[in-house]
User: Which sequence fits this backbone?
């Protein structure tokens, strides 16, 4: 007890000053640890949703708006534009295959679907030219170049039997061997061509043998009469084609 009195007597003033400092420090620490109150967000007020039928309406062709038609049925005008936009072919039959899908055709004329003419072996016909001692099968695939690896290729825009049948073939194969159409340039008016499908066999007489521009697809237009059109490349003339056309007897 005496020791405490002696201590207070010698340091009392400092002890009296330290007590409020400690109290203030404790109060500050307590206030810092106290979490701030949270504010609960109020939901936004509901608004009435309206739909103005005059401002938000569906437009049709009746309003003068151009609508897009069925892309699966290209028009002759679309095909003509595609043909004019395609580059000239190289010195192979690649140009025939590349441009055949863009050939300009007439909307009228006789037409037979390939599946109606298909033979048991998967081909859609057999072309025979007695003068050339040639008999070769005709195929139709998504790619004429692929079809020509098996035989002749059928232009998909042309008929498979009635009307105008359009066929193409190599004059020289990619391995430099002779193509099926190497010698069709030797045909002349009056020569005979025979074509056979599941629908029957028909004889044709050659009426045209001509050199045409690579962009000239007029010979593949649909016709009311029955005819067959053969097209191939001309070696050394990448911008030209040879066409042979024959009409049914």
Assistant:
């Amino acid at each position: 007890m005496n020791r405490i009195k002696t201590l207070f007597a010698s340091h009392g003033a400092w002890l009296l000053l330290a007590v409020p400092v400690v109290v203030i420090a404790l109060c500050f620490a307590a206030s810092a640890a106290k979490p701030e109150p949270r504010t609960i967000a109020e939901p936004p007020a509901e608004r009435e949703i309206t739909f103005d039928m005059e401002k938000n309406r569906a437009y049709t062709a009746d309003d003068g708006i151009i609508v897009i038609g069925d892309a699966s049925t290209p028009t002759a005008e679309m095909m003509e534009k595609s043909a004019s936009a395609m580059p000239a072919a190289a010195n192979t039959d690649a140009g025939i295959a590349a441009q055949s899908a863009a050939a300009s055709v007439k909307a009228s004329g006789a037409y037979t679907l390939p599946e109606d003419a298909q033979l048991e072996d998967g081909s859609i016909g057999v072309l025979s030219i007695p003068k050339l001692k040639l008999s070769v099968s005709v195929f139709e695939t998504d790619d004429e170049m692929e079809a020509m690896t098996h035989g002749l290729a059928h232009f998909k825009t042309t008929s498979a039997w009635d009307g105008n049948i359009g066929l193409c073939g190599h004059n020289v194969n990619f391995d430099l061997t002779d193509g099926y159409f190497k010698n069709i340039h030797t045909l002349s008016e009056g020569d005979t061509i025979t074509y056979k499908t599941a629908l029957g066999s028909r004889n044709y007489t050659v009426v045209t043998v001509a050199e045409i521009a690579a962009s000239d697809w007029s010979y593949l237009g649909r016709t009311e009469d029955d005819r067959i059109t053969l097209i191939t490349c001309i070696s050394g003339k990448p911008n030209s084609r040879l066409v042979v056309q024959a009409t049914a007897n």
Observations:
- Confidence is low (pLDDT under 50) at residues 46-91, 100-106.
- DSSP finds five helices and eight strands in the chain.
- Residues 2-33 form the longest helix (32 residues).
